[in-house]
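ERR on first pass: missing label on line 2. Operator R.T. fixed the label and resubmitted. Corrected input:
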Amino acid sequence: MDNFQFCTPTKVHFGKGSLDKLHDEVVAIGKKVLLVYGGQSIKRSGLYDQVKAKLSDCEVFDLAGVEPNPRVTSVRAGAKICKEQGIDVVLAVGGGSVLDCSKAICAAACYDGDAWEQVLDWNKVTKALPLVTVLTLAATGSEFDAAAVISNLDTDEKLALIHPLLYPRVSILDPELTYSVPANQTAAGSADMMSHIFEQYFASSTNLISDGICETVLRTVIACAPRAIANPDDYDARAQLMWASSLACNGICSLGNGVMPWPCHAMEHELSAYYDITHGVGLAILTPHLMRFSLNEKTVERYCHYGKAVFDLLEEDDRMAMANKAIAKTEEFFAKIGLPKSLSELGLEISDERIADMAKHALEHNQAFHLCMEPMTLEDIKQVFKNAI
Amino acid sequence: MDNFQFCTPTKVHFGKGSLDKLHDEVVAIGKKVLLVYGGQSIKRSGLYDQVKAKLSDCEVFDLAGVEPNPRVTSVRAGAKICKEQGIDVVLAVGGGSVLDCSKAICAAACYDGDAWEQVLDWNKVTKALPLVTVLTLAATGSEFDAAAVISNLDTDEKLALIHPLLYPRVSILDPELTYSVPANQTAAGSADMMSHIFEQYFASSTNLISDGICETVLRTVIACAPRAIANPDDYDARAQLMWASSLACNGICSLGNGVMPWPCHAMEHELSAYYDITHGVGLAILTPHLMRFSLNEKTVERYCHYGKAVFDLLEEDDRMAMANKAIAKTEEFFAKIGLPKSLSELGLEISDERIADMAKHALEHNQAFHLCMEPMTLEDIKQVFKNAI
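pass 2 clean. output:
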């Protein structure tokens, strides 16, 4: 078991009706609120009006229109309002993109330079406004971690900003708020959660506790995502998916696992940066190809263990065959919940030149590819992109 | 999945050499330190001198001699020093008893009345000194929760004090500090962790995530306790036991599980209060009897599920037989790590009158016996005590 440091100071209110906690949690911090959200969905669903009604004794400023891969331009706009209006607390109402954007706003609001500088250099975060979140999509786990992923279209970059000051102060998780999430987004969110686990589970070192928690989250998503897709109002399925999403990216699933290079996310961020595709979709497409790339004599037992623990595969003498079955099961599950198997299914035509660019950038932005369970070179990254076409 | 609220603000430094974090964490809070510890073991092991050396620029006051079932008299003594000396931070170095005592000191130091009043009425905790812990025994999970259990010999009471202000600010968990824990204490600590899980796992409602995490912790303890007992310097076994102990009582294993009445702890606290026996030993003795009491047609599937998930039992048509095997496996495991099977093995002679007293007090102190998976009456509690003799 490797050494670790762990602290998640976020207070979670989980369950039906937990939006009732919003007012007291917000005003305990302050009454000048920046309300951050995405498109029209929270207005259509009535959630926007509910939130406004609950904060009727607060002064609420709106930042609407946060994009699915949130842009640094939105961060700048939010930080500007915070500075001009003396905002006390940022309230994010939405999915991972809204939450990520809000985290970057919390940091940029307390910084004199440009927001993108903080993404490029996390040490430039020294103070942040407190953040309260109301989650409407189970996927990224942003509600229970200290990370944000921000896109810069000027530079074709999509990069992480991670800092302990960016844990939400409070996260309100009401599974009923995800009833309106359509099937394709439920599926993409589920793939995102699973990918978070894969990045931690196929690591250089593991232990009984991290294995068991990772496998639990994977089995939960595999059991509940099809139920939530078939019956969007299945409270129990929505609830378990929601809590699975929060655990999956928080770090608690893999404490003691040592170096985790997160290759799939690094590669997917390139796809999203260039093609603005849905993050979870890109992850689902890349995952089986990454798994097949890293399967070899050295790693075969890990894949067999995974297949047995997560898909109840029976032990086989032919270890490579069993490992390949585990990977095929993963691919089948993504297909079962309606996710595409290839980039060409998305209508993307990706040139060799673009693949070379993406692989180069992935390697620049993530210095840990050589520490993967099976180390990855520039050529390996290119090959996995190609296999995913 | 039931609604829940969750927040663990404790920062954990886990692993070899994590004592090196002590100085900076303490002085970040303040330089007037109350050092709380138990007997001579931290002096023999050299840990006391190490801690003192690391805090050479602090003003350190000692409170030594905290008892295995910590007394309110020790709490009063610690609170008195805090008040007289204007202590900034309490530093607990030891196992669960030292940590529990220290939590109660943190609360009592900020309270004008007597410390026992706060145990009897948790609302009387409104402020607490910050607590830093250095753990030397993997067992109670006190390093990562907000609970303390305090004994009052004047009233033969052993009661919990639980308050969010009592989470340690920082907990330093170095598995190497548990190498010197003898076999019997390692076994008792392991039984304590398992009992914490049982109290949450055999609950009125469960879900896939809580089941998986609970089963993971149980399997980890079952795998690692015998290794740590056979080879006290087995770092990996000590590390996994240590982190298992922290998770087991934190609440994160059972989020969404609804009402958890903790009957075994309520009953064991009576045994400890009257006979001052080791907590984990009492729990191990009571557990199989409580399980057998609650096994019936309504609960049989839960025990079968447990047996399959934790002990890899094969499915059987005779469900009651399978459930009984699961309970027998539990009993065998406790015996395997050297724990006694009955109260008489401890040399205790327990009269019917004393059993009646203990059952009455257990029911008075824990109002939730009727909410157990199989509800328990006064007569049921008496019967389980009798069966454990």
